[in-house]
Design goal:
single chain, 283 residues, alpha/beta, Rossmann fold, six-stranded mixed β-sheet, four-stranded antiparallel β-sheet, 24% strand, globular
Length: 283
């Protein structure tokens, strides 16, 4: 098993209160496979992924417990220096808003080169390697676009650049956190297709974080559904999508648009049923 998360708990502290954002989450990820973590905003998806490489605020503002085993080594026990060899090189991130992921004052090519120089000092010609990465993620005239600034690119192209930066370090795991949220439907399909192609070509594993069950079908091998800091259902994506067992999963699946669907109004999530199921399961 490449990655195994056990009983992960995350709490945020303020002067007056404490919020339990993640409450005993466990999941695993095999090499070359894709795990989709699905749930509404605020369910704990993103903080779970950021906890893997300790990108959250330090204690006492944020307290993390449990285990995140990468090839058997607990990432939560590593020093900051050791984590620098994991971030980017073993686990890389693609976040949902490419405009905030790129520095507007530097060309896109220089930002890819920076990642190469930090993690891959064996590269003889970083510029050519960066151009090759731009070509790999489908950017035309890559040699010319190397010197472009982020504002000269569309949202879809910027997201491709962010993916190229993540791939620069040849990671074992790519965490794609809502990678298509800021994009229109056509570009969304292109980005998901690109991620699928890269997974097959590079042999890397993907953790896809999304609130949209519609992009999970046909892409993810496994699905973990999060609700209020807990995984309420997980399993093979085909089984979860076709025969959801938890009331929350059933509500999310009903919200997936279907071709030919005719409804007077959008489906409504009945949280009273979900809360009743949660009380029965956890008290």
């Amino acid at each position: 098993m490449l990655l195994e998360v056990r009983d992960l708990k995350i709490g945020f502290n303020s002067r007056r209160s404490r919020v339990e954002a993640v409450r005993g989450v466990s999941f695993s990820l095999e090499k070359g496979k894709t795990l989709a973590i699905v749930g509404e905003s605020g369910s704990g998806k993103s903080v779970t992924s950021m906890a893997l490489t300790r990108l959250l605020p330090p204690s006492p503002r944020c307290e993390v417990s449990g285990e995140a085993l990468l090839d058997g080594r607990n990432l939560l026990d590593l020093s900051e220096r050791q984590l620098c060899q994991v971030r980017g090189k073993r686990i890389a991130y693609v976040f949902q808003e490419p405009s905030t992921s790129l520095n507007p004052y530097f060309t896109v090519g220089s930002q890819i080169v920076e990642a190469l120089r930090f993690h891959r000092d064996d590269i003889q010609d970083p510029r050519q390697e960066a151009i090759a990465l731009l070509e790999k993620v489908g950017i035309r005239e890559a040699a010319r676009r190397f010197d472009d600034y982020p504002h000269q690119m569309s949202g879809g192209m910027k997201q491709r650049v962010v993916i190229a930066i993540a791939l620069a370090c040849q990671p074992d795991i790519l965490v794609a956190d809502e990678p298509t949220t800021a994009l229109d439907v056509t570009i969304e399909a292109q980005i998901m297709e690109l991620l699928g192609e890269l997974r097959e070509r590079e042999g890397m594993s993907i953790i896809l974080i999304t609130h949209n069950f519609g992009i999970v079908d046909g892409f993810a091998d496994e699905v973990a559904v999060m609700y209020r800091g807990r995984i309420v259902e997980n399993g093979p994506s085909g089984k979860v999508l076709s025969s959801p067992e938890h009331a929350y999963t059933q509500a999310l699946v009903r919200c997936i648009p279907q071709i030919g669907m005719k409804r007077d109004r959008l489906p409504v999530v009945d949280y009273s049923l979900i809360e009743a199921e949660e009380v029965a399961a956890h008290g």
